[in-house]
Design brief:
About 35% of the residues lie in helices and about 25% in strands. The chain is α/β, with parallel strands linked by helices and about 325 residues long. The chain has two domains: about 180 residues, Peroxisomal Thiolase, Chain A, domain 1, CATH 3.40.47; about 150 residues, Thiolase/Chalcone synthase (Peroxisomal Thiolase, Chain A, domain 1, 3-Layer(aba) Sandwich), CATH 3.40.47. The chain is globular, with a radius of gyration of 19 Å. It starts with a strand and ends with a strand. The relative contact order is 0.19. The structure holds oxa(dethia)-CoA. The site of oxa(dethia)-CoA (UT7) has 20 residues, from helix 2, helix 6 and helix 8.
Amino acid sequence: MYNSRIIGLGYYLPDNIVTNNDLSKIMDTTDEWIQERTGVKERRWIDPKTDDTTSTMAVKASKIAINRSGLKKEDIDFIIFATLSPDMYFPGGGVRVQDMLDMPTIGALDVRNQCSGFIYAMSVADQFIKTGMYKNILVIGSENHSGGLEKSTRGRGLTVIFGDGAGAAIVSRSEDKGKGILSSHLHSEGKYARELMLDAPNTGRWVPEILAENDSEDQSYYPYMNGQFVFKNAVIRFSEVIIEGLEANNLNKEDIDMLIPHQANLRIAQFIQRKFKLPDDKVYNNIMKYGNTTAASVIIALTEAWEQGKIKDNDLVVLAAFGSGFTWGSVIIRW
Ligand code: UT7
């Protein structure tokens, strides 16, 4: 068995900053409400006049990650792309990146696990590397939420939370024992699929039917979230899956050097921080600047923390996420 290590990181965010005050001009909300309930101060939303899409942002983040890895794009032998907002209904984003980066005809896999997407993608990459099937995998999380949000008072519960952005990691084979991805832990509970979802269009109710219904009350093609229920489950599952990861490696919470939680809500991250008694410098949050970027949030936060020198050689880094599905998971890394 080989080991897998992250050897390159990159992220890209659209230039367009949307503040809470900007939102209060288009819906009944306030900066105070948003900051108090979520911690978000501003987010990036793609300016439709630019060429940014889920895939083009992914390409920009990937170029940085490949460059930093010291590899050439020809050295990458597989792509894993996590997103809930692909450019097209099908095909997914992986093949778009393969094309836009002008890569050889390598395989491209799409992961549909929403907020846990990057965790699932890292786990898949780790297995392919450990078994020797691939040497260098490009793992991406990218989202364009802004195009699909209901930007009015009716949609305010969700719209104020979400932001756009992309991140990428190069996961590579390593002979360095004891370093790299130590383990990953994945879970799901599909009975709660409808508590956080985008229902339509779906194969039981296609676009022609939605158009024929012509129902101005219909919100089924906007995301829906049972916020308080999701919140309660999130704090429990985050804690469980972090403990599971630590125990699998005979580690304690005191061993954590850096926790990167999915940026769902600052209040959730703060709850976890208190529960694990972690000082501020051992938890990285950036939801204040970017909102919740779903599959991109963990990789953007990981990259920022690394860029700021907050992750050093031999550090124990814990990635954890929870979200729609429900799905949740953790990845334990010895840097
Ligand atoms: O990333 C995937 C995982 N996602 C999460 O983990 C998110 C978990 N949930 C949450 O973060 C929180 O539930 C939210 C931030 C989404 C909502 O906060 P909340 O404290 O649960 O608020 P609420 O939905 O219970 O709404 C409270 C009140 C309601 O008014 P009434 O019924 O009490 O009069 C809402 O209509 O706040 C109202 N409200 C707003 N007011 C101003 C909802 N959204 C807004 C808004 N601005 N944007």
